[in-house]
Backbone:
């Protein structure tokens, strides 16, 4: 009978991390409690708010409903992985959120930014409706939806510009 | 929710999964997308002693189409893959529509059609569409395989005909008849990220203005998802007009047995069924005319 957590290897923001997890431990808890990556927020903890959203193999998922033990061999991107690891330069989406007041209390922000990243990676020129629909699974209790949408659309513009000059 | 005694198992074949379930029976819980199971465990459902992750079984998530046989969907196909599948959008649009309404994008990336059906919520998003499509469900168990018509699959809220050693492996959908239109309408309290207060799926085939065939299914308004067969009989072979659609809606609302709950009252649900059935048939009819 197992009496210690299972040893697994998670690939987080490009780095391999060995960690021991209980089978029913969620990825959100593992990231926050065992790996000190507290950028991923837990708000409702039951899959109804989207705050814990992060990207696994490029797709937005709810980390509070994902078992850590099932994430071996997958590419996990958390909010800590967005800024440039060497220079610390913010990702365009992060810059846009700063410029356009995309956050107020910040609890929903990590989940929103990562979900927005997945959207823009798939569709670099979304409409406003497209942004709202893609972010429908991310609730913002500050009610900052207008600025969130504006920030994502501004990020799209920035990234289009970067792509053209890159 | 964490217990040290829980064992995590990863079968690599259906046979292995079935063998594990035969051995452990109710002490084991299958996990696919996990979006229902983990929520339930967090809310205090009894913890199993074994969690069986079936996502390691290969070739269980494919969507294949054949002109004669129709559609075959592996039980592990994600709701997202069904939402965006070109063949499902084109030929089985009511199912693609239902898939697009489930939860949110994050949930759809993980949730599976098998899990949606086996969790057997009365509001299961894909159920009304599969009911009007007359899907058949392939089930693997210790005694071999069997196929069950979806209308016989659900027995009560959260319960299906699956035995403890059985696992849903495939959803088979026959070709819809030519020149038919299908629509799924979900009534919700919130604009997004909500269970259906009422779900209505319709497939209809018209001959000019005559309703040659119609199938109506309702979700979230009975202990299981149901076909509204009395409503279908009332309007089959009749001329499509507003009065007829209202009658269909009325009969359907009486076939349902909705309850009062946190989302809505039984009375309001009946009223909404009456409206949505007519609306869905009208939209399906317009789909046919638009082709």
Residues:
């Amino acid at each position: 009978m197992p009496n210690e957590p299972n040893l697994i290897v998670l690939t987080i923001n490009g780095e391999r991390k060995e960690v021991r997890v209980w089978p029913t431990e969620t990825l959100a808890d593992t990231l926050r409690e065992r790996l000190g990556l507290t950028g991923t927020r837990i708000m409702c903890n039951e899959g109804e708010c989207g705050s814990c959203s992060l990207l696994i193999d490029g797709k937005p998922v709810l980390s509070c409903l994902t078992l850590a033990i099932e994430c071996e061999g997958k590419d996990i991107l958390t909010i800590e992985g967005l800024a440039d690891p060497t220079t610390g330069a913010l990702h365009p989406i992060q810059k846009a959120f700063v410029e356009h007041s995309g956050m107020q209390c910040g609890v929903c922000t990590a989940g929103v930014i990562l979900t927005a990243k997945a959207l823009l990676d798939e569709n670099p020129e979304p409409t406003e409706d497209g942004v709202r629909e893609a972010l429908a699974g991310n609730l913002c209790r500050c009610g900052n939806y207008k600025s969130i949408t504006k920030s994502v659309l501004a990020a799209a513009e920035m990234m289009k510009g970067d792509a053209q000059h890159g | 929710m964490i217990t040290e005694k829980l064992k995590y198992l990863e079968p690599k074949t259906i046979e292995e999964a079935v063998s594990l379930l035969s051995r452990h029976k109710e002490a084991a819980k299958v996990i696919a997308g996990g979006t229902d199971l983990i929520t339930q465990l967090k809310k205090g459902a009894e913890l199993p002693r074994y969690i069986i992750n079936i996502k390691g079984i290969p070739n269980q998530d494919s969507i294949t189409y054949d002109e004669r046989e129709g559609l075959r969907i592996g039980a592990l196909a994600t709701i997202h893959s069904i939402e965006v599948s070109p063949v499902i959008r084109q030929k089985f649009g009511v199912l693609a529509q239902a898939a697009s309404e489930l939860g949110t994008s994050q949930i759809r990336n993980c949730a599976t059609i098998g899990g949606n059906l086996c969790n057997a919520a009365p509001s299961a998003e894909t159920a009304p569409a599969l009911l009007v499509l007359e899907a058949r469900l392939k089930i693997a168990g210790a005694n071999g395989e069997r196929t069950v018509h979806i209308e016989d699959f659900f027995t009560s809220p959260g319960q299906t005909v699956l035995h403890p050693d059985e696992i849903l492996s495939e959803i088979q959908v026959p070709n819809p008849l030519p020149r038919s239109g299908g629509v799924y309408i979900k009534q919700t309290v919130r604009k997004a990220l909500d269970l259906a207060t009422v779900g209505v799926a319709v497939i209809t085939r018209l001959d000019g203005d005559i309703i040659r065939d119609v199938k109506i299914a309702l979700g979230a308004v009975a202990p299981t998802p149901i076909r509204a067969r009395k409503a279908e009989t009332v309007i089959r072979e009749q001329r499509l007009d507003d009065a007829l659609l209202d009658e269909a809606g009325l009969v359907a609302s009486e076939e349902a047995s909705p309850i009062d709950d946190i989302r809505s009252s039984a009375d309001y649900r009946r009223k909404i069924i009456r409206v949505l059935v007519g609306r869905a048939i009208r939209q399906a009819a317009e789909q046919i005319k638009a082709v």
Remarks:
- The longest strand of chain B covers residues 198-207.
- Residues 266-290 of chain B form the longest helix (25 residues).
- The mean pLDDT of chain B is 95.
